[in-house]
Amino acid sequence: MTHSFVDSCVACPIDAPQRRRWGSALVLLGALLVGCTSSPESMQPVIDSMTTTSSTTTIAAAVSTTTTEPPPAVTVGAEVLADRGFDLLDGKRIGAIVNQTSLVRGEHLIDVLHAAPNLELVAVFAPEHGVRGTAGAGDLIDDEVDSATGVTIFSLYGETLMPTPEMLADVDVLVYDLQDVGGRFYTYVSTMGLAMQAAAVAGIEFVVLDRPDPSGGLNAAGYVLENDQRSFIGQYPVPAAYGMTAGELALAIVGQGWIEGLEPLVLTVVEMQGWRRGMTWEDTGLTWVPPSPGLQTAASAVTYLGTVLFEATSISYGGGTLETFEVIGAEWADEIAVAAHLNGHQLPGVVFVPVSFTPGPLPERTDNPRLNGIEMSGVRIQVTDPGLFEPVGTAIYVLAEFAQAHSEAAALFESPADDEESK
Q1: pLDDT confidence band for 366 (50 / 70 / 90)
Q2: 255, 257, 180, 164: which is closest to 212 by C-alpha?
Q3: DSSP letter string over 293-341?
Q4: Of 24, 105, 318, 386, which cross-links 62 as Cys (Cβ 3.0–4.6 Å)?
């Protein structure tokens, strides 16, 4: 997949002193949405718009990120709504935007909605990678019929990227439940925004069932997208890593007017129970279900926010291994020297471990990864403190190290071959 990550952008530096000043979730989210500034005065309009949006959710203030007790297990939005008997959906016809991550205590949301006696599931919508998450990055998805329920699955990654009026003709409420990773270039949140726009035009409600940000929702990092670079893989003027859940981003999209025509939208965000900013994925107690073929571990979802930029280089980002986006390497690199130099920078929240790896075919992920069969030498990016780790800045240090080690640095930016596992 081609990403807008290396397009012409505006830098959004977020240094350690700024991070320490962001002692509450409101301050963090406000800073993100006004271009990564920490001025309380400039953030107030953003806060006002987000708290007045039609929704069952407002952004919680002053969330502590430290505790002496183990954090509680997290109940995701889909489970919260199911425990309430799907009260928001009572008597209505439902369209569901889902994939393999859309689980309610191990059972797929499609099946749970289909079995619910007080609603009717009339349509399912498939994002990139499909409802089962097995399609490669960029592979177009076809419409199909779900064999278990008989409900039509409409593709939102094929001939159209947003629901058409015909697809929504029998829908009263559109429900969105996809595990996101907090990266601007991850296409699920673009699907969410376009579906919100379609719902507003059709006059139907839109419900987001919230799920955790794997990075903890603490740090914003990277570049803010310039307006002339907007595309399906970069829809909103937020940093590359924006530090919000999908539900929080949906509120910001409406409150800030990042998509036209959302004024009539009735948006509801079903909050999680037990989630707090700063939680690692392990803290949540949830099972990691890969949201796309390249993100097989929760750790990879954290490093991906920076290492995704290596998709635009000839360097391996670990595609065709079990550590995609966690390891970086090249056949000509000296892994010991690269690791030593990078560790010498003493970057916050991370250490670099020298590794060698060989990309190869992986069942249900990739048959022919980039640099297939060639031994790579490089580093594993091992996050030691997610609260301090800066994914984009770290990745830029790694890229600079490889560029300095290569006799012809320009060759690193030659157009790589397509990689079906990418993302």
Answers
A1: confident
A2: 180
A3: TT--SHHHHHHHHHHGGGGGSSSB-STTSTTTTTEEEETT--HHHHHHH
A4: 24
